[in-house]
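The material for today's practical consists of a large collection of protein records. There is nothing in a record beyond a sequence line and a structure line. Backbone structure tokens are a discrete shorthand for how the chain folds in space. Nothing more is needed to start thinking about how sequence determines fold. As an example, a complete record with its sequence and its structure tokens follows.
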Amino acid sequence: MVRAHVYVSGLVQGVFFRDHTRRWADSLGVKGWVRNLPDGRVEAVLEGEKNNVEALLQRIEEGPPYARVEKIEVEWEDYQGEFADFRIRW
């Protein structure tokens, strides 16, 4: 099990990025959260099986339709198992 703290830059707000990320996470069994940041980036914390987290990171990097991902930063952290599901934070 792994944990990734992710920051996504580009045209990633106002394009249903958080909703797509939540749906992708649910389909892969990844737990955690996603939120918009005031500086225009999207932040997420992902926990789950390594291959599923990596698959979600690939989808995030591609982005949903109308998004334009310019940069993705991933910080690998110690798995904590603190999430029961995947949520959009406000």
In short: The first strand starts at residue 2 and ends at 11. The mean pLDDT is 97.
